[in-house]
Amino acid sequence: MNHSSYTKEQFVEYIKSLVEEDSHEVFEEKFYEKELDIWNELDSTEEIDLEIETTGYIWNVDIEQRGEMICAGFYNHSSELYNIKYVVFFRHCADYSRVVARPYDLKRVGKSQEGYYLERYFNRNEDERKLVENGKIVFGVYFRIFNTEQEEQYLNSLKNLINDNNQKIITDEYYEYKMENWDKIKHDKIVKYIYPNFNKLKLKFNNHNGNIYFSLEDCSLFENRSSYDANIILTLHNINDITCCYAKSITTTVTHFDEDNYIIKFPNFIKEVDLYTKNKSNKSIIENNKCIIGLYTRYYESDKNKIRKVREPLDLSLSSSTSSSSEDIDIVIPNDDEMEPLLQPKENKTTTPEKSNPPIRYAVLALIVILYYCYYFYYTYIFCKVMKEINDMDHDNK
């Protein structure tokens, strides 16, 4: 269809068509638009704050300028479970063909701000003529909200895997992301960066002799020098059916994460064949080379007396009667080739969760310096003495 011929109704249908269809029952749809005097508002307040109301939820929207890029992000503070797909767009006030739109999938639980990280939508200098006229632009969001009864049952199953170790709970959070191109894992690794609740996580899957190895790296801890205590459940499930899933606790007890302990390596997370094994509903975790990966995280108040190192992972397999064998897991410092160049730690490249001991390092360095200078002065002394003797011999011969 030629976008320039869109009526308002056709444009709305076009935006809705960007949301991928699935088998979930739709609970509510919401189409929201607002015309903005964008440059005046951004220049005077630095950010534009909007509120969008749907049944049971109020969504907060932030629009900001970062450099030359116009960015937007939104969130809500509900503690209830919701399951949505949505499209965020900016368009010209009068021409529906001049639009920038992005679709998203999102499912979560807990008081969090997933989605708040700002996404870049257009360049003020390069795209202004396309989208803005006389300082005016239209911002919009389309929500498709689904029923969550099945999701609640699924999440309760995940909660049953958590060992709180009698530690005080702060909050629970759950995020899902689509993982594509699973055929790559036969000859390469799959890496995906996700951004739950202001954090930057790196997920990596490797195939080793038919077993899928998994690692989770919280890059934000190294960047921000922060820390937290948490339990984490990792799940893989069919893109349209959460009952076809595989889940494991990758911490098994309350675990401390900080700048020195920010990556979990989990060998033998699942057998590759189990990703493609059909369940009773004739569905497999991987469908059309895609699946959904979920992270259920429970955060706790810090308690230094609690055990931080975890072993013998638990598992829950709804897609197959077989589950991968339990392996020891640990929080480790990654090797250089597993890190982004800007995130490589300057020190402490060990593979244990123990923090390095700076006084020992400094003592060794001081000893090396002392030995160097001793060698230097000794060599200089001997050299000067030999040269003096040679000069004395030459003088005597004369």
Query: At the third CATH level, what is the topology name of the largest domain?
Result: Apoptosis, Tumor Necrosis Factor Receptor Associated Protein 2, Chain A
Number of helices: 7
Please count the beta strands (DSSP E, at least 2 residues each): 19
Q: Outline the low-pLDDT stretches.
A: 109-115, 309-358
Find the structural class using helix and strand composition: alpha+beta
Write the layout of secondary structure elements.
Layout: H1 8-17, E1 26-37, H2 38-45, E2 47-54, E3 57-66, E4 69-75, E5 82-91, E6 99-108, E7 119-123, H3 124-131, E8 136-146, H4 149-159, E9 169-179, E10 190-194, E11 201-208, E12 211-218, H5 219-224, E13 228-237, E14 245-249, E15 255-257, E16 263-271, H6 272-275, E17 291-300, E18 315-317, E19 330-331, H7 358-397
Write up this protein.
It is a single chain. The chain is of the alpha+beta class and 398 residues long. The protein is built from 7 helices and 19 strands. The chain has helices spanning 8-17, 38-45, 124-131, 149-159, 219-224, 272-275, 358-397, and strands at 26-37, 47-54, 57-66, 69-75, 82-91, 99-108, 119-123, 136-146, 169-179, 190-194, 201-208, 211-218, 228-237, 245-249, 255-257, 263-271, 291-300, 315-317, 330-331. The strands form 4 sheets. Strands 9, 13, 14, 15, 17 and 18 form a 6-stranded antiparallel β-sheet that branches. It has a 5-stranded antiparallel β-sheet with strand order 10-11-12-16-19.
What's a concise summary of this model?
By secondary structure, the protein is of the alpha+beta class. The chain folds into two domains: about 5-145, Apoptosis, Tumor Necrosis Factor Receptor Associated Protein 2, Chain A, CATH 2.60.210.10; about 150-345, Apoptosis, Tumor Necrosis Factor Receptor Associated Protein 2, Chain A (Sandwich).
